[in-house]
Amino acid sequence: MIIGLGGSDRLYGGTGNDEIRGGPGRDRLYGRAGGDRLFGGSGPDLLEGDGGNDALSGEDGDDRLFGREGADIVRGGFGSDRLGGGAQNDRLYGGPGRDIVLGSSGNDRLFAGGGRNDLFGEAGNDLLDARNGSYDRVIGGRGRDRALVDRRDLVRFVERAFRSGR
Question: 83 with 117: CB under 8 angstroms?
Fold first, then answer.
């Protein structure tokens, strides 16, 4: 386990499966190879998974989280976050703030959090779920995308949209 202290830390994983935890402050966490678990902590953080099937969690602050290679699980936290997947089939979960959630070339699953979110499927056959009661923008991409949305959400470039009663 690699743990950051107060202040701005740069923490790097190795070739195996690592757990990396940033502390308070502006941290940069890099998983590198292996199936890593990265936790941002408080403050605006940058988390990058890289190779392997990684799990990233933004926690507090306005964070940037990128799974990169592997089938990753990426979760935003409190604050306005930017989440990105990679070439595999990723699952990306926005948090309660205003988030931007970007799929990639895999068949991804994107979920809006409690706030107002922008979901972009990009390439692949994606599922974009924005049923959170807030106004969201849901944009598909290349591939056969499906969207689960509220009545007030803006939906573009998806093959099938299912609207709930909200």
Answer: no
- 94 with 144, same domain: the answer is yes
- Number of folded domains in the chain? 2
Query: Which residues 6+ apart lie within 8 Å of 98 measured at CB?
Result: 80, 115, 116, 117
Same domain, residue pair 22 and 84 = no
Q: Is there a contact between 43 and 22 (Cβ–Cβ < 8 Å)? A: yes
Nearest to 155 by CA among 119, 112, 126, 114: 119
How far is it, in rounded angstroms, from Cα 126 to Cα 137?
Answer: 15
d(CA 29, CA 151): 38
As a whole number, mean pLDDT of residues 75-98 equals 95
Q: What pLDDT, on a 0 to 100 scale, did the predictor assign at position 166?
A: 59
Would you state the structure tokens that stand for residue 85, as one six-digit string?
């997947």
pLDDT at position 73, please? Answer: 98
89 and 38 assigned to the same domain: no
pLDDT tens-digit map of 29-66: 999 999 999 999 999 999 999 889 999 999 999 999 99
